[in-house]
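PROTOCOL LOG
Step 1. Enter all chains and additional molecules of the complex.
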Amino acid sequence: MGNDDHKKDIDHISGVETTGHEWDGLKELNNPAPRWWLWIFYVSVIWSIGYWIVYPAWPTLSGATKGTFGWTQFEKLKAEQAEIAQRQGQYLSKFHEASFDQIMADPELYAFATAGGASAFKDNCATCHGTGGAGGPGYPNLNDDDWLWGGQIANIYQTIQFGIRSGHDDAHISQMPSFGVDGLLKRDQVTTLVDYVVSLGKPGDHAAHAGYTIFQEKCASCHGPDGKGNREFGAPNLTDALWLYGGTRDTIYKTIYYGRNGVMPYWKGRLDDDTIRQLTVYVHSLGGGEESEPVNDPAAYGPEPLTTGQ
Amino acid sequence: MTPQPMAQNPSPPDNKPFRFFARREKIYPRQVKGKYRRLKWLVMTLTLAVYYLAPLIRWDRGPNAPDQAILIDLPARRAYWFFIEIWPQEVYYLTAILIFAAIALFFVTSLLGRVWCGYFCPQTVWTDLFIAVENLVQGDRVARQRLDKMPLCFEKIWKKTVTHALWLLIGLSTGGAFVFYFNDAPTLWADILQGDVSTTVAWFVAALTFSTYIMAGFSREQVCIYMCPYARFQSAMFDKDTLIIGYDAKRGEPRGKHKAGTSWEGHGHCIDCTACVQVCPMGIDIRKGLQMECIACGLCVDACNDIMDKIQMPRGLIRYDTEIRIEHNIQDKTTWRIMRPRTVYYILVLALVAGLVVYGQVTRKPFEIHALHSRNPLMVRLSDGDVRNGYEIKVLNKTHQDNIYSLRVENLADAALEIKGAGHLTPDRLPVAADEVATFHLFVTATPQAEQSRDITFILRDNATGRLDRYTSMFISGDKK
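Step 2. Run joint prediction.
Step 3. Record the structure below.
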């Protein structure tokens, strides 16, 4: 174009000029983009120059141009996180001051605790206990009513803080010995004991059983003479329907022969106390939480009650 | 195959290139006086009054609900229309109302033609208003045409500026009124006067100002011709007994100039003055017959009657009548068939939809229960061998007062219900504040059932009135362990 001498090739059906290109008798119509569209395009191009100046744009050897606004994604993230923290703050300060009793009685604090606990649970606890807290073989189901170390708020709080066989000085510690491996029981004794333990869940005269004597001698000190367990030692109840590692004869045999010493890490120091308290309320809310026994000292349920003097 | 495109597409006889795209010719409708014009002013006044004033109407709903008669409260997810109140899960009422409106449009169209388009449609009302502004500032058709052809001068600048300023002002008030339907009008009005409005409100006002300005100022009849789907399919509701704007061709043709006082022998009554074309806001010639563009506003009838009066011929060369009556030149008023299969169907459907809406409103439950079975975990086995299932119970209190409900379960023997949460909530005492949805975490414990998943029914009772609502859920006993 531009050359006026050039004869324009007009397509007579549409009345539109062609580009002059022809392929097998087909010609391309020259329909340029509308002018308003082009103008928006040009304005956008000019506008983009402003972006280059005010925002980080051009890569340099050591990074990128900073832009006059000084905007970065990290700053934006920081500002947004600060806003979230500020919004949480009004509840958090109230939560921080409140005792467990107060939290359990206040719908707002309770909702705040369970919501925060649910989120912290998924980040920290779900790896072993599952996202719904249903656990698995070796990892306790937190929804049921069977607690090794107690299901009251104070018990749960202590367990989360210090863990079980976690290496922390205040951790729950107990040992299920490897009766078979260490030669404390012979193989046939273990088998007899398995029979006895399986029979504990069913009604009958347990004292007449061949395993009764072995049990009283080797197991009753932790699991109790009737096999109902003892929370002092985290010894499970052997008479109920729930089995941490599984209730088949095979699993019970392995448990007695090799012993079981599951570990739960301590969270004190890794999570702040408010988060641990939120987790406590959340785990308690899953369904198995037990009513707290009345205590004389309300401060025992306040923030960090179990660490003082330890 | 040898390419022979040219031979198969012969050019038009006049050898002018055929265009697929027709550039819009700007329409300069002339002002007209008459019966239909007066009706149009009246309808415009009424519809605009309804649009601007409806949000100001108050309607007392008690202390726990807004007192605005028509309000769509988006943050609270409630819609109010006088005595009707809709929650989000009842949005099917809206569907029913829209179906009713659509069928009502079909019904009216099959009887009276496109009166919606000609009188009530916002596009028509605002376009008419904008043209009235043009007429006021710039003068009538010829003056406006002259002004547009004029080179840029002081007169053109001030007239155009004033026109567009008034258009924008109307647009602004249109957008301003729109946001009142979504906010408490007196509160928002005070906020607007203080210049303290949310970004959302400001954006909506700006968007509606702009769209009103564009649609009524520039797009105008193109909206009806190219954008509006109703315009296209309303012809499907037409039949020969539908009232239309019709030109009596038998009486009018052959058209042509006629000198006053001479004989009408061999002349049709149409003197080809083109008054009907000049007043048409759609820019069509009604004498070519009923067309898709015609919005049945009747302004050409007014214009033609005016001319007929001047040449002392009977009115009604262009008239608002049925096709069959115009065709056979029937004057008898009784021959308009109103009850036709089409109109009867529409009446039946209208009655059905209206009945459903009324039935729905009359039997609307004042409260509802919904139960969501917990999925993680599906069930929990307890130490005594029992099974526990968790549920999220949602109770909707649609009344405007605080109520207390009680919950029990049916079809599950020896089931123990426990509400988990702060405070002392029991299944017998579930308080729900007025106009709120409350969520309760419920545990149901029972002995393992024979079915892996058993259907159970939750029954919620309003402790004050004794009314019940049910929700069927399931109780899962076993994961085949």
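Step 4. Note key features.
Chain A has a mean pLDDT of 88.
The interface with chain B takes residues 10, 12-15, 24-26, 103-107, 109-111, 130-134, 141, 143-146, 237, 240-242, 285, 287-288 of chain A (CB under 8 Å).
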